[in-house]
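Worked Example 4.2. Consider the chain below.
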Amino acid sequence: AVNYRVTSLKIWGLKISKISDIPEIEKLTTLKHLSLVNNQIEKIDSLDNMRELTSLHFGDYWERLGNNLIKIEGLDTLENLEYLMFWHNKIKKIENLENLTNLKVLGLGFNQIVNTLELDDLTNLEELNLEYNMITEVKNRNNEDIYERVF
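Applying the procedure from the previous section yields the following structure tokens:
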């Protein structure tokens, strides 16, 4: 079990730890960077109180390491998020990104995403990786030049 009595933790990374669940992670309200690459996590549903997060890594492009993520909830509350990496997972649908207006990098490659992505409000987006998905449409009327940098 993870002890969440630490109240001022800023960075937390557990790579290749074989964890499958992150219970009560929402208690880490001061966390700025969270990296849980190459574990067995299937679901994230408790990010609501983690409003200080600026980077969230649940997959690595170069090492081809991810998790077993299918569902992510609570992203809409992470308004300070700048980097969101979910490479090499099993995500089928991603939504509620409209409040992530500070997002600069969005890495969703190597998933199973099939829905239309609504990126209209992501005006600071600089890098977008959607490779190896089945996305039907990407809507981003405010940042047309992002398509030059889409991977």
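The mean pLDDT is 82. The beta strands are 11-13, 33-35, 43-44, 55-57, 71-72, 83-85, 105-107, 117-118, 127-129, 138-139. Compare this with Example 4.1 before moving on.
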